[in-house]
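Re: that backbone. Tokens:
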């Protein structure tokens, strides 16, 4: 594999995961003025419009083949639709840090699905690294020997985990002749087939009941542009280079980044135990990738 391409994939996935780790905070801000379905519907509509305009200007949107529509439908239904609906409602019940932790378990299940559906190899270091990271994850959320969480909120977030894995597998199976912007545009556009009727059925009657804050509106714009356009393009690019399992393994850094963001922007203290947990999460990520670290690191160090 081209060394510069590999390096760019790592940089892209770290940026994407960092953005998504902070997106929980923007979603919670948006929820101050809008209901969950409204937030994600506006977010995805804006993202689709932006992608469409960019694709029109750059002429990089490929024609969608009829035979590929079922795959794009499944991807659009699983994520963004199911993923964001469950995530948004889950965030009304648990904190941003807890949500980030739950969603960081995506790598735990990714190898199984990747092996079953796209025949990706699963190595021992993937499993060991994931287990170590999960230990760190638990250290981030356990307080006074109890889990301070909502059972329903956890269930919704675990549904998000499942749909994120399905989405990743769909990305891997989409034919390679589609450009990244084509894939993300079509998936986002198709997701509106699910979002808009859901919004009209459940949320439109409540629209405007809450005071509409400027910070909430700007949060949705940031979510649309940065989290749903730029980061999705990055993630799509990375999955096609390093695969489903390795790309999703980087979800393990999300709790650490979310905890740091909450500490930096909101002054929420982080205990010594949580700092240890953050370190263990990152350690697990490196172990998960250790099978290729030696050769890849040597290659990356040779990049001029």
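Recovered sequence:
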């Amino acid at each position: 594999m081209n060394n510069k391409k590999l390096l760019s994939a790592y940089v892209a996935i770290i940026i994407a995961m960092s953005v998504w780790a902070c997106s929980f905070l923007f979603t919670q801000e948006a929820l101050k003025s809008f209901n969950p379905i409204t937030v994600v519907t506006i977010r995805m509509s804006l993202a689709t419009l932006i992608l469409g305009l960019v694709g029109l200007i750059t002429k990089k949107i490929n024609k969608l083949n009829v035979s590929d529509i079922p795959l794009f439908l499944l991807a659009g239904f699983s994520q963004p639709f199911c993923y964001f609906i469950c995530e948004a409602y889950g965030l009304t019940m648990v904190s941003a840090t807890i949500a980030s932790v739950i969603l960081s378990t995506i790598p735990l299940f990714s190898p199984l699905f990747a092996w079953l559906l796209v025949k990706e190899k699963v190595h021992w270091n993937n499993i060991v690294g994931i287990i170590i990271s999960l230990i760190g994850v638990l250290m981030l959320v356990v307080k006074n020997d109890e889990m301070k969480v909502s059972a329903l909120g956890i269930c919704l977030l675990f549904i998000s985990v499942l749909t994120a894995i399905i989405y990743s597998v769909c990305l891997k199976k989409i034919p390679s002749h589609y450009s990244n912007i084509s894939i993300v545009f079509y998936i986002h556009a198709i997701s509106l087939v699910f979002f808009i009727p859901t919004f009209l059925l459940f949320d439109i009657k409540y629209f405007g009941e809450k005071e509409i804050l400027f910070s909430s509106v700007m949060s949705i714009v940031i979510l649309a542009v940065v989290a749903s356009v730029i980061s999705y393009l990055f993630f799509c690019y990375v999955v096609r280079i390093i695969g489903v399992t390795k790309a999703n393994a980087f979800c393990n850094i999300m709790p650490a980044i979310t905890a740091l963001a909450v500490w930096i922007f909101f002054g929420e203290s982080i205990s010594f135990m949580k700092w240890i947990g953050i370190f263990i999460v990152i350690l697990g990520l490196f172990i998960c990738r250790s099978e290729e670290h030696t050769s890849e690191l040597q290659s990356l160090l040779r990049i001029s």
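Strands lie at 142-143, 146-147. The first strand starts at residue 142 and ends at 143.
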